[in-house]
Every structure is written in C-alpha cells, then in structure tokens.
Design brief:
Elements: E1 5-13, E2 16-25, E3 27-41, H1 46-53, H2 55-58, E4 65-70, E5 77-89
Antiparallel strand pairs: 1-2, 2-3, 3-5, 4-5
Length: 90
C-alpha cells in the first residue's frame, strides 16, 4: 500500500449527501464523515439563507463548515454547505 491513501464513499440521505473518507498511513488513521446540502436561493433571500446555513455551527453540531455560493446566468442561485459531522483519529 502507498505511504498515504484516501478512500471516499458518498451516499444520499434524503436531500443531503453523506461523504465518508478513510485515510490510511500504512494502516487506518482517520475516518471523517461530512454532510453536503444544496440550497436554492435568490438575490433577494441569499443573506437569510446564508445565516440559516450557519445553524450547525451555532447549535454546536460542528466546528468546521464550508459554504459555497454559485450565481450562474441561466441557472438558479445555489448555496452549498458542507459540514463535518464526525472525525475519528486512530
């Protein structure tokens, strides 16, 4: 086995994707579970929707989150939030 390798599985849990990443350094060293949710928004509601995206931080469910905003002509505006649900280190 190479010195460092990662394996990632993704499954759907309703409207949320669940990503499980296993990291190996000769043996299993970490398992990280992240959730990803896409939220349609608009220029009129983007601030409200962005604040609502922070719920997992403010209620203590996670301390790590990435939020992406996509505004492409001809497509609905989209917020994507990815937060770490759990991380186990061995």
């Amino acid at each position: 086995m190479p010195k460092h390798e990662k394996f990632r599985r993704t499954v759907s849990d309703g409207d949320t994707l669940v990503h499980t990443t296993e990291s190996y350094h000769e043996s299993l060293t970490q398992i990280k579970v992240e959730r990803e949710k896409h939220i349609k928004t608009s220029k009129q509601t983007v601030l409200k929707d962005l604040i609502e995206c922070l719920e997992h931080i403010t209620d203590g469910q996670t301390n790590e989150m990435t939020i992406k905003i996509r505004a492409t002509a001809g497509h609905p505006d989209l917020l994507t939030k990815i937060w770490t649900e759990s991380r186990q280190t061995f």
